[in-house]
Amino acid sequence: MKLLLSGRALTAGTVAVATLVTGGSAAGAATAPAPAHPAAGATAAAAPDIPIANVKAHLSQLQSIATANGGNRAHGRAGYQASLNYAKAKLDAAGFTTRVQQFTASGRTGYNLIADWPGGDPNQVVMAGSHLDSVTSGPGINDNGSGSSAVLETALAVARSDYRPTKHLRFAWWGAEELGLVGSRYYVNSLGSAERAKISGYLNFDMIGSPNPGYFVYDDDPTIEKTFKDYYAGLGISTEIETEGDGRSDHAPFKNAGVPVGGLFSGADYRKTSAQAAKWGGTAGQPFDRCYHSSCDTTANINDTALDRNSDAIAYAVWELSQ
User: Fold this and answer.
1) Which residues are catalytic, by number?
2) Predicted model pTM
3) Which phi and psi (to 5°) does residue 96 adopt?
4) Are 200 and 152 a contacting pair, CB within 8 Å?
C-alpha cells in the first residue's frame, strides 16, 4: 500500500506486450482451447478452499527473491522482475493467457502482469488484482506479498478445478503501486471506454495477512461489499468498513474510471482499538502491522489465520461474482 504522501513526478511510457522480463520468452503463451461449458441447468460451482500452505509457499519464494536481490522487490529493481517472472511462470504452466504491460516511472521501467482464464463472456469481466512491488526498505511480504500470493493461488485454483464461469476471469499484478498507483493507473488509462465498461467488477487485495489483524471490507460497490460480508458472516466474524487505505491502493484508478470495485484489508500502521481487539483478538493499542514499510516485513510478519480466511474469501468472491 502506498504512503499517504506520494507527490513524486511520475511518468508512464509506451505500453509494450513484453517478453519475460529477464528470460526473453514470449509474454503471451499459447494455451489449449477451453473445454465446453457445463450443461445448462448445472449446479453453480462452489469456491474451493484455498490451501494456506500453498499461499505461504509463494510468500517464501517472494522472501527468497528479496533476500537474493538487495532485500526488496521494489519497482525497477531485480527483485521485482524476479517476482513477476515467478508468478508468470506459474500462470503460464496452469493454462492462463498472460501478457506483460510495460511503463516507465521515476526513470525506471515497470511492469504489470495480466492473466486471462480462457472462456466466459468477454463483455462481462471479473478482475482480481494486487500490487506485486515492495518498498525499497524491505521485502514487502505482507505489503503486498500477501495479496499477490493469495490472488495467485486463487488463479491456480481456477485452473486446478477447471472452473468455467459465465463471466470472463482476469487476474492482475501491478507494478509501482508504492510510487503512487502507477501500474494500475497506466492499465486503466490504456483501456478505451468500451473496454473499461466490460469490467463488471475489480477486486483489490492489498495487505491481507497483518500480524495484529483486522477484518476490513471496502464499501465502494454494494454487491461486492455484500459478497465479502456474507462470507465473513458465515464464519461468525464481524467486519468493519475499510477507511485506512481508502484511495491508497490499486482500486482507486478503477473506481475513478467508473468500474465497480471492492476488496479486503487487514490493516497497516493504524492502531487496533480496544473494541477491535475484543472483537478480533490481538493487541489493543498496537499497529495492525508494526512492520509496515519496514525491513521486518518478512515471512515472520504474517498472521496465518487472517491470511487463510482472506485467501478463502477471495476465492469465494471470485466464484460468486463470476457465475
Assistant:
1) 177
2) 0.90
3) -80, 155
4) no
